[in-house]
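Our consortium's second objective concerns turning raw sequence data into structural hypotheses that experimental partners can test. To show how far this objective has progressed, the report includes one record in full. It was chosen at random from the queue rather than selected for favorable results. The single chain below, 420 residues long, was entered without modification.
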Amino acid sequence: MGVNVFTRGSGWLPTVIREDGELKLMLAAGADANHEPRVFTVPISEAHLAVIREDLARHLLLWSAILPLCDAAGTRGGLDENAAVALLDPILLSSPADVDTLFRRIPWDRSRLVAHGADLDLLERGQVCEAMRAATEGADEKRAEKHRADRRRAARGVVLGPLDTEILRYTGQYLHGATVPRRLPDAVDTALLPQVMRVVATAEQACAGMRIGLDPRRGNRATDKRDWDRLAAAVEAAVRRAYPELVDDAVRTVSFLMCSEAADRSRSAPVEDDEAAADGHPDLGESARKTALSFTDDKGGERKWLRGGPRSASAEFWEFVAARSAADNEVFTIEDEELGEGIQLHFYADSIARITTVRPGKAGSDPQYQVEYRLVDGIGGYRNLVRAFVRGGCAALEQHGPWLSDVTEFERARRRRDAW
C-alpha cells in the first residue's frame, strides 16, 4: 500500500503515501459490490504535498472536488486519473479567485465542506476559499445532514418557520423525512415545546377513537391503507384548521406520527376476533354457526378448523391468509364440506363468490353448483362477509347483496367500479 507520508487526525481525510518512490494522494470513497469502501490514489508532486500539509482549507477543497470522480467510478470502475490530476494545480496552486471560478464549473461535494466548518453564506455565494477560512480538521456530520435536509426542502420551495422546525425535531423527521416518527421532546427548543405539544394534542383529539386495522392480504404486520388514509385526513384537517400557518411538512409529520402509533397498537394487540364482534347480532343465531371448515388457497395450502378449538374460525382464517397471501397467491376459499357451501375471496379483483351445491354428484356424475358474485369494498368488507358466512353460511350472506349469477354482468359491474 505504500509508506505513509502525511495524514491528518480525521480518519477520512485523504492521506499522502509514497509508493514505488512516487507520491500519491490516497482516499477512501464509495463502496464496492460487497459494500466495502473503495480506495483510490492520485499521483501528486512535492509542491502539492507542501500545500496539503500546510493548508487545511485547500486539502478539504481538493477532497471535495475529487469525491464526485470517485462516485462516478461506481462499484468496479476505475478513477478517471487524468481528470483528478487536472484538479491538482488549479485547487492547490492557484489564487483564491481562480479556485472560486473553478468551483463554479465543476461538480463538488458540498457536504464535506459543510461538515468541516464551511461558512454557509459564503458557500452559497460561490466564495469557497473564503468559506473555508474557519475550516476544522474534525467533521460535524450532523451539521452536514441538517444542511442537506434544508437544501432538499429549499429545492421544493419549503421554508420552515420556528414552530415547523421544532415539530419536525419532535418527531425525529427534521433530517430524514422517511424516518419512522417518534416522540422526542428533548430534541425541541424548550421555549417552543409547549406550542409543539398543543399541536400534538390537537392531532390526538382529532383521531381519538379511530383505529388502523391490519390487512392480512399483505402479510402479518400490514395495515389497512384505507384506515390509514382516513386517520391521516382527519388529523391533517384538524391541525390545518387550528394552525393554518404551519407548512405541509410539519402537518404531515404529525399525521404520520398519529398513524404510526395507531398502526403499532394494532400490531401489538391480540388478533381481532371478528365473530366475537358480531355476538348478539339478531340475524346470526347460535344454531347457524359453522362447526367445521376448511381453508385453501391457490398454491395448494390448506388448513382445517373445528369448532371448540382455541381460536375462532375468522381469526384462524385471517391468520392463514396473512401467512400465505402473496402477489401470485390471491385467491382464498372457505368451505363447509358437510353442507356443500363455501365462499371464494378474489383479492386481486376486490370481489367474492358464494358457492352452494344445487345437486350432489351421484353415480359418478359431477355435482352442480350455483355461483354468485359480489364486489367487495376493502378489507373491512371482506371481514364482514367472512364473519357472516362463518356464523350463518351462504344464507346469512343474502342481506349483503346484491349477488350476481351472470358472469358477464358481474364483469361489467367490476369494470365500471374500476373506472371510477
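The partners drew two points from this record. The first helix runs from residue 46 to 54. The longest strand covers residues 22-31. Both points have been shared with the crystallography group to help prioritize constructs.
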